[in-house]
Design a protein that fits this description.
two-stranded antiparallel sheet; globular
């Protein structure tokens, strides 16, 4: 007697607490029929919306509620002036001289891309509408930009899990792991834009997968447009495009026509198997391209989707050129090199850079996102099931890490963790559910996820720049010593910093922030006057370094009349949003259970009718 699809799904559900796939076959495994049916149901949208609301409320509640870096302050100034005077110019008298670049008409412009400023404009409009006479409220709202966009990563990852055939409840749990146990969480609670990069990257991948399943050129083009936004942020994301575009290829259909499996001996090392696998995939890609020129078929269809994806990316590149011309009168001059030339060297030592990003306690992605280990262990099983997904992840990671290893400012300081690699984390999260059970026990999976959650809670607990000022680092300390992240770790130091929050600010702390106006509470932090050796003493004048980082915790120290927002109303609204998100998820899961019960009843009635007919 054959087993029904619903019975197979029922067998998987009891294990979802720490569910991991067991792969015993090298063949790609299609998703269960019940999961495929669920993908087309309304329930997934209830759950996706619920996860967004849940994650968004948590991100906003743990946000600093103030502009926490001068990079964010200058992006705010561009957005503010763009709305006010219709030009993306910089007029901030404190941040402008530090980071502004002279451009067209003698005006000062930022060398950063347009999206981070444009995407914040709805929040700035709300600030000007509800708080027209309080610029601090606009700064507060601007600080939430990455929280809103970072929270959008969660539903996209959830939907991608369903595309990969992951069970529904399991997909929800792994989505929460991706959202709260990796660097994505602190990256979404800052005015830096790395979480925004992660959203557009994973959204492009999702649309690419949909285009392959539906054989849609329009979806491939839309995915390319999402990836093109990455180019508007930073031009180096062009290096990731060939890998991201692989998501548009319907790999399993092509594998039936061009088999890639070859015999392997037990004596082969893991590195040998990896290299031989890469060579086979390159041969496979070459065969697909050749077949695309021979005539119609899946090979040509996949290649056309790949090209449409690249057309979308090209649109982003052209807009980037246009924005350069708008600011600096040149298609290829974005102002970065002119600004960097007198501030710090651009290129560094890759011999120090690569191990810094991989294993250093100061900037290793594994230290700051422990669940990445689950992705590494699961990537082989994901390769067997969906080779295009694994190849996309590995290709994008190799391209970005190789490039960043050669960049002098690879750490992105002053900040928390290896923020430039945040764009890779949602992609690696796709491999989380596929860790083979024979490689990692359930309790170890829980321990790794728990460690990731603990690291992110530490990241959100205290002010990031406290670490750098306490050590009197120069502005470009990382350019002076390429091995500095093996000697100092903000992660290890954060344990003591978090514990010290219990004692409160020192008696010498007379001001809240080092802003140019003493009663500005949501303006960015500005550094100490020279000499830098006095920074540890200087910072003791400001409470911001000794108070908890989330805005509900530091804002309660301010008199009600000085708070940029109504603390009680905001906290109550966000808690209500969190409960609404939980309710949406529950509604979606309940609808699935009802549908299964109805289907089981219908099958039972059909079986009864068949037996009655025979008798």
């Amino acid at each position: 007697m054959t087993e029904s699809p619903d019975a197979r799904l029922d067998q998987r559900l009891p294990q979802i607490e720490v569910r991991i796939h067991v792969e015993n076959s090298a063949e790609p495994l299609p998703p269960p029929t019940s999961v495929r049916d669920f993908i087309h149901s309304n329930s997934k949208w209830w759950i996706a919306t619920g996860t967004f609301l849940l994650v968004l409320s948590a991100y906003v509640l743990t946000n600093p509620g103030r502009i926490d870096a001068i990079d964010g302050q200058i992006r705010f100034d561009v957005a503010h002036n763009w709305l006010r005077v219709g030009r993306p110019i910089v007029r901030d008298p404190w941040v402008g001289p530090i980071m502004g670049v002279p451009g067209r008409g003698g005006a000062v412009y930022s060398y950063y891309g347009a999206p981070a400023s444009i995407l914040s404009m709805p929040l700035l409009w709300l600030g000007s509408h509800f708080y027209p006479y309080n610029i601090q409220s606009s700064w507060f709202l601007f600080s939430l930009t990455s929280s809103v966009i970072g929270a959008l990563i969660a539903p996209v990852v959830f939907l991608l899990y369903l595309e990969l055939g992951v069970a529904v409840k399991e997909a929800i749990l792994w989505t929460l792991v991706s959202s709260f146990a990796t660097l994505v969480w602190p990256a979404s609670c800052t005015t830096l834009d790395n979480a925004q990069h992660a959203f557009f990257g994973i959204a492009a991948v999702y649309l690419g997968f949909l285009s392959a399943r539906r054989r849609s050129h329009a979806l491939a083009l839309t995915g390319g447009l999402m990836a093109g936004v990455l180019i508007l942020y930073q031009e180096y994301f062009l290096l990731l495009i060939p890998a991201l575009a692989i998501s548009t290829v319907h790999w399993n259909s092509l594998c039936e026509k061009f088999p890639t499996h070859e015999s392997q001996t037990e004596a082969e090392s893991a590195l040998t198997r990896l290299l031989s696998g890469i060579v086979r995939q390159l041969r496979f890609a070459l065969e697909v391209v050749r077949d695309a020129f021979r005539g119609p078929g899946e090979a040509r269809s996949s290649c056309l989707r790949y090209l449409w994806f690249c057309v979308g990316v090209a649109t982003g590149l052209l807009l980037s050129f246009a924005y350069n011309d708008l600011r600096f009168g040149s298609l290829f001059d974005n102002g970065k090199m002119r600004s960097f030339a007198h501030r710090h060297p651009v290129w560094g030592n890759p011999i120090a850079g690569l191990p810094t990003l991989l294993i250093s306690p100061g900037k290793s992605l594994l230290f700051y996102s422990p669940p990445l280990l689950l992705g590494i262990l699961g990537i082989r099983s994901l390769w067997r099931r969906r080779p295009e997904a694994a190849l996309m992840i590995l290709g994008a990671s190799a391209a970005l890490i190789s490039f960043m290893s050669c960049y002098a400012g690879l750490g992105g300081d002053w900040c928390w963790g290896p923020r430039y690699l945040t764009v890779l984390l949602p992609m690696w999260a796709l491999a989380f559910p596929f860790v083979p059970a024979d490689k990692l026990r359930r309790d170890l999976v829980l321990a790794i996820v728990g460690a990731g959650l603990l690291v992110q809670v530490l990241a959100l607990s205290a002010e990031t720049q406290r670490f750098f000022f306490e050590r009197a680092f120069d502005d470009h300390f990382w350019a002076e010593d390429p091995w500095v992240y093996f000697k100092h770790s903000a992660l290890f130091a954060r344990v003591g910093e978090t514990i010290s929050l219990g004692t409160g600010p020192p008696l010498t702390a007379r001001f809240f922030n080092s802003a140019p106006v003493t009663d500005w509470y949501t303006y960015t932090i500005l550094g100490p006057p020279p000499p830098r050796s006095m920074a540890p003493t200087w910072m003791r004048n400001f409470k911001i370094y000794y108070l908890p980082r989330p805005w509900p915790l530091w804002m309660c120290w301010l008199p009600k009349t000085l708070r940029p927002i109504n603390l009680g109303v905001w906290a109550g609204t966000l808690l209500s949003m969190l409960l609404a998100g939980v309710g949406f998820v529950y509604h979606g899961l309940h609808a699935i259970q009802l549908a299964k019960a109805d289907e089981a009843a219908a099958n039972e009635e059909k079986a009864y009718s068949a037996v009655s007919g025979k008798t």
